Amino acid sequence: MKSPILLGLLLSFALVFSGCISTSEDKHEKITTLRIGYQPSTHQIAEMVANDLGWWKDDLEPFGVKEVREFGFPSGPPEMQAMIAGELDIAYVGTSPPIAAISQGLDARIVAAVNINGSDLVLGSDVPYLGPESLAKMKISTFPPGSIQDIILSKWLAENGINVSNLNITAMGPGDAISAIMSGKVDAAFLPHPSPAIIEMADKGRSEVASGEMWPGHACCSLVVSGNLIRNQPDLVEQIVKIHIKATEYVNTHPAEAARIYANHTGQDLKMVRYSIKTWDGKWISDPHLQIPSTLEYIQCYRQQNHEAQMLTEEDIFDTSFYDRAE
Fold this sequence. Notes:
CATH architecture of the largest domain: 3-Layer(aba) Sandwich
CATH superfamily of the largest domain: Periplasmic binding protein-like II
Order of helices and strands: HEHHEHEHEEEEHEHEHEHEHHHHEHHH
CATH topology of the largest domain: D-Maltodextrin-Binding Protein, domain 2
Low-confidence stretches: 1-25
Number of helices: 16
Number of strands: 12
Radius of gyration: 19 Å
Structural class: alpha/beta
Strand content: 15-25%
Strand order of the largest sheet: 2-1-3-11-4
CATH class of the largest domain: Alpha Beta
């Protein structure tokens, strides 16, 4: 049986090669299978907690959901391409990839927050770090353009007087980026947890700058729901948000158990997961209002990189009404 992450990778590759980026029309019949996208990151433990404790299945069954299917993705951009193609109903994803996707026609909104901060700039074990300017001659890996990590790193470097276009930055998924820095093919990597913890525990690098130092309290992951569900099954969406709030509270009050659930779900080493949770600067939240200010800045950053992109508003990106009712 293929893992959820493998299924998600196969799905994203199929979408890329098929060129399928059209939005799906509303399906007025109630869905019986809920399709969830996520990434194997400690940022998104709440999704795994809800699955492991049976909350997706049990709490959504009264709303007609008979099956919940998970699809794992290496980063946000391919996950949003899957959602554009109508292959996902909800997605745990970085807050910036939906901006590009909505600009391309994705019919969806952010309905809840997932976390803030939580990424690190990691340098190879023998690579000296003397401040942002020392990155100018380095080979650096991070997530693809449009991702949270790409935007934060670019903004931080520009604020420190560094011309990003002159840098040697390569877009990679987490697995490739970890392998690249461990093998010395790149000098540095800017990645979300638990990738920095994996590199540190292998004694192949060290975290130098946390993303919260680059941009304090920045929005990271969010819960995105399709417009089809928002319009046609609002009660189901409200219940999804309630489950997410409950799972987020569980992660914050039971971090050791949440670490175990994450390790079992992803197959990653439990000791490493605990180290990641202990050392990251992230925070699990569910209130989308806390993410709005930095997300509006992400929109400005996206438009600077894509001059022909439309100017999106808060209402284009967020629907906080479900969270407000759930609270």
